[in-house]
UniProtKB/TrEMBL annotation:
Primary location: mitochondrion
Family per similarity comment: Belongs to the ATPase protein 8 family.
Alphabetic keyword roster: ATP synthesis, CF(0), Hydrogen ion transport, Ion transport, Membrane, Mitochondrion, Transmembrane, Transmembrane helix, Transport
One Pfam family recorded for the sequence: ATP-synt_8
Biological process, per Gene Ontology: proton motive force-driven ATP synthesis
Transmembrane regions listed in the UniProt entry: 6-24
Mode of membrane association: Single-pass membrane protein
Gene coding for it: ATP8
Identification of the protein by name: ATP synthase complex subunit 8
Molecular-function GO terms, alphabetical: proton transmembrane transporter activity
GO cellular component terms, A-Z: mitochondrial membrane; proton-transporting ATP synthase complex
Top-rank lineage group of the source organism: Eukaryota
Annotated localization: Mitochondrion membrane
Length: 55
């Protein structure tokens, strides 16, 4: 049963996981900026009720 033999795919999985974790992820995170927290209170939108023409 070749599914039980981890030799062909385990090394590929481990290499790609390490490549992503150690090389690609820090480069991507350097471009992503987080939104700073805001002290403003959220404004409630002013809504008007809809008048249905058949009522």
């Amino acid at each position: 049963m070749p599914q039980l033999n981890p030799s062909p795919w385990f090394f590929i999985m481990l290499t790609s996981w390490l490549t992503y974790s150690l090389i690609i992820q820090p480069k991507i995170l350097s471009f992503v900026t987080t939104n700073p927290p805001s002290n403003k209170t959220p404004a409630a939108p002013s809504t008007t009720p809809w008048t249905w023409p058949w009522t």
